[in-house]
Design goal:
This protein is an alpha/beta fold. The chain has 16 helices and 14 strands. The chain binds S-adenosyl-L-homocysteine. S-adenosyl-L-homocysteine binds next to strand 10 and strand 12.
């Protein structure tokens, strides 16, 4: 066991070193979007996956085309799922030329895929500017759910999270999120299956990249896009309060999940730096507004961290906090990855916490673990690949 711990410590240290050296170079630190502003980068064509249906229609009008043509183009992109404009054979040569002059296809290269015994698949992608990102596909009895990354790295700095080990180097474009889903859908096409659900719960804070995330969701949700139903789409935020209000005012039908992980400010401050900017009182006010404005129930995510937030008193305090709200709690088994030494709880301890919430009349579920034999925790595959690159 000690030897195992020692190895783990070593591994974590190594990962830290890699992150320090590769991901957040001093240049990137000074100017995180420098790559995007680089002249060669800005000369690149826009990805066609960046265009929402409405944006495509506006573009068509600006070309003097009939809007109808966008239906055909979207069909090719999202129903036939072609990889090039040349394959759009019912479009005239001129139309295809105009498209290829202005747009290109996917901005992602699939680097690696891992498949677990339970059907969970992890995908590692490389962006045009060399960043690595991960998506996960989980198989449920109700369908196939894809967990999408929204940023390269993350600035939220949650103490238990692997993603936060690397600072955000940039936001992902809408096309880079669409492309994650498209690549996975194309894999599923081989067996005539489809992506039926999306959770924006990969690396990154979606409400720190609001516009791109919303445009991405528009495309995958659109009837002529991938047609993934709004109720099958979930966005998870660590609690960026102003964006919760904005989201509430948008009256979207997507599900909202909030990462809570603590029943009081003292504990939440120590786990999630965002709580210092938007403490629980403010968060709960925003949530109250959201649930009432949208007449929707909301999910709170709560990772059980052994000896940190899983006492009987924590459960009771959580119940007191949440009782007034239209919500339910999803208890999440912790994937141990970080150097802070957080430990997961066992089944019995999880059930104890669950039972208290139940008794206190809080709607609660325990999330099933997925893909534990293939680097289950977010960011692990990415780290492995970075390490390989160093050798
Ligand atoms: N930034 C968003 C979405 C990404 S994280 C958010 O905070 O909600 C998605 C969920 O996974 C969050 O609830 C997050 O707290 C949780 N999470 C992070 N690291 C984890 C780990 N090692 N094990 C289990 N869940 C983790």
């Amino acid at each position: 066991m000690d030897k195992e711990n020692e190895n783990l410590q070593k591994e974590v240290q190594e990962i830290q070193n890699i992150y320090e050296q590769i991901d957040v170079s001093p240049e990137m630190e000074k100017n995180p979007v420098s790559l995007l502003e680089h002249p060669e980068q800005s000369l690149r064509k826009k990805s066609i996956y960046d265009m929402t249906y409405e944006q495509m229609e506006d573009w068509a009008v600006s070309k003097g085309w009939k809007k109808f043509r966008i239906q055909q183009i979207y069909n090719w992109l999202y129903k036939s799922r072609v990889d090039s404009f040349e394959e759009m054979t019912n479009l005239s040569k001129e139309t295809r030329k105009a498209l290829s002059e202005e747009f290109e296809f996917t901005p992602l290269e699939l680097v690696r895929q891992q498949i677990a015994k339970d059907g969970t698949r992890k995908f590692l992608f490389r962006t045009e500017d060399g960043a690595l990102l991960e998506s996960v596909m989980m198989v449920f009895d109700y369908g196939n759910s894809v967990c999408v990354s929204s940023q390269v790295g993350c600035n939220m700095g949650c103490a238990f999270c692997a993603s936060g080990l690397t600072k955000k180097s940039r936001n992902l474009k809408a096309s880079e999120m669409v492309a994650q889903v498209m690549a996975i859908q194309k894999e599923l096409d081989r067996s005539n299956e489809r992506v039926s659900h999306i959770v924006v719960m990969g690396t990154g804070e979606p409400f720190d990249n609001y516009e791109n995330v919303m445009n991405f969701l528009k495309t995958v949700n659109h009837d002529r896009g991938l047609a993934i139903g709004s109720r099958h789409i979930t966005i998870s935020t660590c609690g960026v309060v102003p964006k919760i209000y904005e989201f509430a005012d948008g009256h979207y039908q997507y599900n909202l999940a909030v990462s809570l992980h603590a029943p009081n400010n003292r504990l939440r401050d120590s786990l999630m730096p965002i709580n210092k900017a938007y403490p629980l009182e403010e968060l709960m006010k925003a949530i109250d507004y959201y649930t009432k404005e949208n007449n929707r129930r909301l999910t709170f995510e709560y990772i059980l961290l052994n000896g940190v937030n899983n006492s009987v008193e924590d459960a009771k305090e959580l119940a007191r906090l949440l009782r007034p709200y239209n919500c339910y709690v999803n208890l999440i088994p912790y994937n141990s990855v970080d150097e802070h030494g957080f430990r997961p709880v066992n089944r019995e301890e999880a059930m104890k916490f669950y039972d208290i919430l139940k008794k206190e009349k809080i709607a609660v579920t325990i999330r099933k673990e997925h893909g534990s034999d293939i680097d289950a925790a977010c960011g692990q595959l990415r780290i492995k690949e970075m390490r390989k690159g160093r050798k």
